[in-house]
Amino acid sequence: MSVSTRSLIGARTAGRGVAVAVALGGVAAAGLVAAPGNADARPVAAIEDDRFVSAPVGDLPGRIARMKQTRTKYTHVDIFWNEVVPNRPTAPGSRRYNRSVARNHNSAAYDWTRIDTIMTELRKRNIKAILQVYSYPTWTNGGRQAPINPLGNFRTQYIPWAPNARHYADFIFALMQRYNGRQTVELNGRNVRLPRARHIEHGNEVNLKSFFRKGRGTNVGAYVQMFVAGAKAADQAQRGIRPKVMNIGGTFGPRSSGGNGNQGALPFTKRLYRSKAFRANADAVAGHVYPAAAPLKQVRGNVFPTWSNMNLWIQEKAKYGNLRNKPIFITEAGYTTASTPFRKTKVTNAQQARYYRQIINTVIPREERQAKQNMRQRGINIRQTQFAMVIFFNMQNNSAWPGGLWTESFRAKPSLRVFRSLANRPTKPSLRGVLRT
């Protein structure tokens, strides 16, 4: 295996396992809901390779060539800020933070090797990236290091402590300038024009203290401050370039209830969407969906996030006129096909494949239709398609999260064939502007 256990577990799953385990705790599921689909409301299906953050850089071209075999047109790329800028950006001979250095993507403070490789290889395969930034360096968060993984005696690969918002804005400015489609750099001995990044997702599972925290737990106010600063910096970095960069915010993790410094996804979302500053700067919103229940099972009550309650998300967003018609990205979703310390719930390979088809073809169109009907009864008209994309996690099984289209030895699972049929569809006209195609 080319990826270490530390990276494999620490990068994506510490904290998530606990969150997913409690998401449906004590909730019964009712019978099947056989609602017909609506082809016009089907989102784009995409895939993520979680090993982009931890595989040796030399392995990345091969992994992206493998990704192309899935026929995906889009993917999700995690950027760990602490690994791109491990040390405080300073002027020569100084120890003080220097904003001019921080905003210069060509400064020696930056190591773009991994991200440059990913972005250029994706462009070769005609796959567009949705960038997601988190993991905040110790030099910007008061010296706080990564926490100890709850299931091991090692530190997680990412750092959840909230950064200085101004520092975050400077990093986002440098990032989005580098990937504005106009920069040429030397890569592997050749001059290469870097592709443009059009989508930037600020933060990861920000309702969970494992991924974003200030003090004893996650904090809506701290996240809004960071998000607004980052969104404005992204806009500034690509000012005058069309189509406009899309700032995606509010990505919640798959936990329905609060406690111990965490917040349930729906309560967190309600608090966040009440923020005028967030609404004014968000071009789209996002979340991660990993319920134990099957997609067509109707979960009783308002437990969220579950597939049968996706309409609650739309309805919450629709309360605000300047958020109502902005799109939703489900930037992680999936079902695992074996039990692990992080997730006891499992499905068969055949169920995984069937569920992925149901999510795209039936559940999302049904939930969107229901939300629009409910809001119309309240005198609120939702015009735009709401769910733009569902990104399934992940491309290849690993020992901590066996949710891949391939097994760990790259043996195809039934979900690969289903995913190919979903991803191969042309992007419908109503989503072309949203996806910047």
Gist?
34% of the residues lie in helices and 15% in strands. It has 14 helices and twelve strands.
What is the strand and helix layout of this fold?
Elements lengths: L4 H8 L3 H8 L5 E4 L11 E5 L11 H9 L5 E7 H4 L14 H4 L10 H12 L3 E7 L30 H14 L5 E4 L2 E4 L5 E4 L17 H18 L8 E7 L12 H9 L2 H6 L2 E6 L7 E3 L10 H9 L9 E6 L15 H29 L9 E7 L20 H10 L5 H7 L2
Structure overview:
The chain is α/β, with parallel strands linked by helices and about 425 residues long. The protein has a single domain (about 5-310, about 330-360, about 390-435), classed as Glycosidases (TIM Barrel, Alpha-Beta Barrel), CATH 3.20.20.80. About 35% of the residues lie in helices and about 15% in strands. The chain has 14 helices and 12 strands. The strands form 3 sheets. The protein has an 8-stranded parallel β-sheet with strand order 2-12-11-9-8-7-4-3, with helices on both faces. A two-stranded antiparallel ribbon has the order 1-10. Strands 5-6 form a two-stranded antiparallel sheet. Helix 12 (about 350-375) links the parallel strand 11 and strand 12 (about 385-395). Helix 7 (about 165-180) packs parallel to helix 8 (about 220-235) and helix 11 (about 310-320) runs parallel beside helix 12 (about 350-375). The protein is globular, with a radius of gyration of 20 Å. It starts with a helix and ends with a helix.
Largest beta sheet: strand ordering: 2-12-11-9-8-7-4-3
User: Would you report the number of β strands?
Assistant: 12
Q: Rg, please?
A: 20 Å
Q: What characteristic shape results from the CA principal axes?
A: globular
Mean pLDDT: 91
